[in-house]
Write a structure and sequence with these properties.
single chain; 10 strands; 326 residues; binds 6-(5-methyl-2-OXO-imidazolidin-4-yl)-hexanoic acid; globular; binds S-adenosylmethionine; binds iron/sulfur cluster
Amino acid sequence: MPSVPQPAAPTDDAAPRHDWTVAEVRAVFDLPFADLLYRAQSVHRRCFDPNGVQVSTLLSIKTGDCSEDCGYCSQSARHRTGVEAEPLMDVAEVLEAASAAKAAGASRFCMGAAWRNPRERDLPSLVEMVRGVKALGLETCMTLGMLSAGQTERLAGAGLDYYNHNLDTSPQFYASVVTTHNYEDRLETLRHVRSAGIGVCCGGILGMGEGVDDRAALLQTLANLPQHPESVPINQLVPAEGTPLAHAPAPDPLDFVRTVAVARIVLPRSMVRLAAGRSAMSDELQALCFLAGANSIFYGEKLLTTGNPETEHDRRLFARLGVHPL
Ligand code: SAM
Ligand code: DTB
Ligand code: SF4
């Protein structure tokens, strides 16, 4: 009887590994598309409810006028982007926005600040924000730039659940995108967050001119951390006029899906977030990303300074796909 060729059975793919080489990750990227998605789906189904997608809502609690020169960012004081700078919001206003996000169905509230790092005098308000958002029954997340060990402990003491701090790209490519801080600075903050017992949210951006090997090296770095991040946002660059990357070409949509699938395989138990860039994606492309193992999104009509799909559109998309919010 003729035998039907089968893709290699993903026997041990669900066991987290921390010893990936870039070449091994690259080999996963280069699989035929169907084999890659089969492997990613198999891992996804073994580790998660394949029809559940977690929803987080973002709020910019301090906007613009940032000292850093991240080439993709609309909030750097070094780029003329038209983003209006706003100081740290009042705690009450933040809590109002968090209540609205909860009413709309979000389970996590992520507060972002355009800082290299928070100042000591900002800590009391930040602590109040964490306490208040938690009291509403939401998971809390912050992204405030670099943190000292002491600041991290204070936020942990307030009950902060997650800290977002992205590595964004490969160690090699990072200096072509940012010069005011370096990869080791990012890793140091991630170590503080982990030591304080806060969950780690760490991912990257596609579409900044990086190559496939840079994407592989970013995912290898994340996978080889002593503990995998709980959440891994995969952003597609949202080009902002006035930034050095304003006219960077969008990544090939199928390469975006490949990256999500590889993230699912090398980070089997992490939530992989289809993060910024969904406004520029078709429903079909987003569906492919969910098939490839994405199981989290940013929900709500604004990211930090740019737009996100309308909540009604996302509700409809979830219904069409039979997806339920986690
Ligand atoms: N200032 C802090 C920092 O850099 O960590 C926190 C806020 S910063 C806006 C958080 C992350 O948002 C960046 O690391 C990057 O991954 C993402 N981001 C910023 N601008 C973006 C853009 N235009 N497109 C896609 N992702 C973006
Ligand atoms: C992440 O990985 N993506 C979010 C969040 N973490 C803070 C930020 C996306 C920003 C998109 C551009 C903007 O709205 O300014
Ligand atoms: Fe500042 Fe963060 Fe934007 Fe970099 S990504 S310029 S650190 S707000």
